[in-house]
Amino acid sequence: MKVKQLCINSYKSPVQSQSWASSLFLNLYRCNSQQISRHLHRLKVNKVVKGGQSFIFGDEKVGLAVGVKGSCYNAGGDVARGARKYGFGRVVLSQNELSIKETSQVISGLIQANYKYKLLGDAAKEKLQNDENNDKYSYIQELHVQDNIFEDPYFQQLIRLAQTKLYARELANTRQEGTPQFFVNEVKTLFKDNPNVEIKILEGKQLQECQLNLFYAVGQGSIHPPALINLTYRGNKDSQQLHALVGKGITFDTGGLHLKSYGHMEKMYLDKSGACNVLAAFKGAVDMTLKVNVTVTLGMAENAISNTSYKPSSILKSHKGLTVEINNTDAEGRLVLADCLSWTQATYNPTSILEISTLTGACKAALGENTGGLFSNNDQLSQELQEIGKELQEPFWRMPVTDEHRDMMKSQFADLCNSGQPKVCGASKAAAFLFNFVDEKTPFAHLDIAGPKFSKADKGIHPPGATGFGTQVLLKYLLNKQE
């Protein structure tokens, strides 16, 4: 969707013109249901539906109105759904009683909700292209806003953040084609000609050669070799600070020899969401030419079953030198992340490390499907991330990591085990495991997005599918670190 400037005089009369026939004229109000009902009555509007916390109407004269009550982002989502329902391909911001900040959040919500992932076959694609009667305005193609809004820095920032989130969704929604090699090719295509981006890739046996044995073990049962993808962007060469992002990229998770049961495996193409979010945030930082130095590490592997799959009871030596007893092959993400964290720290000694992953169902059970879990060794970093998440409607709730959780991850036969007993506090135990692979003096945050990674329904700012939850938080964090 293109976001364009609109001179106020340019849309005073064109409602009747052919060129604006597919336009939805959007009115934004700050009011309750009774107030907006009276307003719609004065306009003689006879088609009204309530959408979420907003009020939508369809009419030849005006098109759609939103009375913001609660989340401005969700109101924007209602706009997107209302426009699709009435077949509008262009949205024009007509009347507006909201502040620039509120308006920017509405437009951000519209962009986020105006997304749909659908992989069509050749015949269906050809039909859509050739059929003049097809619903070619299923998606909003253009959004027009006034100059004072379009030129506002906050508006521009929210637009870029939202567009970055859409790219993360597009990556996460890939199915069987989304192999480790797919992501290797993707980053080469994106950055091979960019002199400000350095690319490092370790594939297959190279992981073993570099002592990333935990990582390699997870992917050794797949015909698709695992790959560590590292990208470094130096947007401020005068600064000594370097911030690191690490993402879990399990391209599909069968559970390994501890096979997942029916009903628990079908969405496991989304187990790469953390890596997709990190790659999208990195791309956003490069595209925006941020004055910040950042390195990102993506741990891409498929946890598959074959005669070469890693086995329960194995004891493996990690990149950091700690030994790990494997007592659950379905606790694979933390193994990949452990080596990625250790490798990143040893290679770059970063100023801070943010790691994001769909790590535990326990976090989803604790916090639900709209909030991520935050585990950190640094109070200031935790507070910053929570404030960013609250502003962008990607909230994180801080969770504990105590000595009790650490003790649960110790093994009788090795330094650590990858799935501790008893079967309680799974999210905190997983975080405790990861903390062993990061220098305690380095500000570190583990973000568990197992709950909000996926949306079943078309609601709020999320259409069905991967949500990209956390992508905006990562990019906003980098924006804040500019010097």
From TrEMBL:
GO cellular component: cytoplasm
Pfam families with a match to the protein in the record: Peptidase_M17
GO biological process, one term: proteolysis
GO molecular function terms noted in the UniProt entry: manganese ion binding; metalloaminopeptidase activity; peptidase activity
Record's keyword terms, sorted: Aminopeptidase, Hydrolase, Protease
Family: Belongs to the peptidase M17 family.
Listed name of the protein: Cytosol aminopeptidase domain-containing protein
